[in-house]
Amino acid sequence: MPGTRTNRIVTANPPGGPEVLRIETRPMPQAGPGEILIRAAACGVNRPDQIERMGFYPAPPGAPEGLGLEVSGHVEALGDGVSGFALGEPVCALVAGGGYSDHVVAPAGSVLPVPAGLDLVEAAGLPETVFTVWANVFEIGALLQGETILIHGGSSGIGTTAIQMAKAAGARVFTTAGTEEKCDLCRQLGADRAINYRTEDFEAIVTEAGGADLVLDMVGGSYVQKNVNLARPGARLVSIAFLQGSRVELDMMRVMLKRLTLTGSTLRARPVAEKARLAAALRKTVWPWLEAGTLRPVIDTRFALADVRSAHERLDSGTHSGKILLLP
Ligand SMILES: NC(=O)c1ccc[n+]([C@@H]2O[C@H](COP(=O)([O-])OP(=O)(O)OC[C@H]3O[C@@H](n4cnc5c(N)ncnc54)[C@H](OP(=O)(O)O)[C@@H]3O)[C@@H](O)[C@H]2O)c1
């Protein structure tokens, strides 16, 4: 809403189900030194937003008020010291909060140009997933061409991105999902084998195929021992969430004997400079994949920002595949 002096944000106080989400009005944010003010075209909805809404994922200190971790739109104002971006330029950005808004302030280092050929609205579905997949699959996980990766939650926003990025890097991709329809989507995105975890045994299937060099896991719980069992010697197991729980009983003998690395990371609380470093790496390696059409955000549904509760009801239903977007 260009020209308005106020800005809508979405809050969840007190925490709870989608019904607690409220649109509130705040003064128009200003771009401080090193920041960019973006007039939002769309905002991405992510699973971490649901966890924050329920009161289990507090925003890091200094984060903008309100839900939302990613946005696309046009540059409205540049703070002092910002170079490399022009007023009106279409961009997308990772933010530590406040992404569900008409206007969003982002650190310049977390802002990227919309890749050539990609729709501005769809670009809102990129930042959270490409930053997370790059950091965990390519940096921490050190995926190499020709290696085998197992990606759990293949139809999620993260999963659909990880499948495409791993294929673009020349890996063999196994993935798990909870329905045949979701498995079909994973195959269309390039997965060599999509495993319906409700009807098939992913541990047996991956082990029979020679094991995995890398596992990207958002499930935890009973999956952890299975991941250890199916891992090849020297494999890396990277945890990015624990949908089935983070407390597990584990036979560490196999970790030692196979020289496994059990690791993980979160993105949101990383310092601004660290996110800028990740953004530079994305621009160099992942933006060419986006511009070549090798990688595309998978968009599930679009909702008006005013209908944010319906967007979260869909997220909670777990029936979505890929990204849900909000349009201010
Ligand atoms: N560490 C980080 O930096 C970071 C950053 C962003 C996101 N994340 C995490 O990554 C995950 C994916 O995020 P997203 O926004 O892409 O989520 P999403 O699109 O909502 O997808 C979540 C996926 O998890 C699967 N799932 C849910 N409960 C499950 C269970 N009990 N067992 C097995 N699979 C289950 C669902 O697929 P099925 O229907 O196939 O079960 C769904 O595809 C979330 O857990 C999120 O918190 C971590």
* Main beta sheet strand tally, sense and closure: 7 strands, mixed
What is the SS-derived class? alpha/beta
Q: Total number of β-strand segments? A: 15
* Portion in beta strands: 25-35%
DSSP summary: helix tally: 9
Average pLDDT number: 97
What ligands are attached or bound here?
A: NADP nicotinamide-adenine-dinucleotide phosphate
Low-confidence stretches: none
What is the terminal-to-terminal distance?
Answer: 8 Å
Rg measurement, Å: 20 Å
Shape: globular
- Helix-strand topology string: EEEHEEEEHEHEHEHEHEHEHEHE
Helix content: 25-40%
Question: Which features characterize this protein?
Answer:
7-stranded mixed beta sheet, 6-stranded parallel beta sheet, alpha/beta, 328 residues, 9 helices, binds NADP nicotinamide-adenine-dinucleotide phosphate, 15 strands
Summarize the structure.
By secondary structure, the chain is of the alpha/beta class.
Produce the secondary structure layout.
Layout: E1 6-11, E2 22-27, E3 35-45, H1 47-53, E4 70-78, E5 90-94, E6 103-107, E7 111-113, H2 127-140, E8 148-151, H3 157-168, E9 172-177, H4 180-188, E10 193-196, H5 202-208, E11 212-217, H6 223-230, E12 231-239, H7 252-257, E13 261-264, H8 272-292, E14 299-304, H9 308-317, E15 323-327
Parallel strand pairs: 8-9, 8-11, 9-10, 11-12, 12-13, 14-15
Antiparallel strand pairs: 1-2, 3-4, 3-6, 3-15, 4-5, 5-7
Bound molecules: NADP nicotinamide-adenine-dinucleotide phosphate.
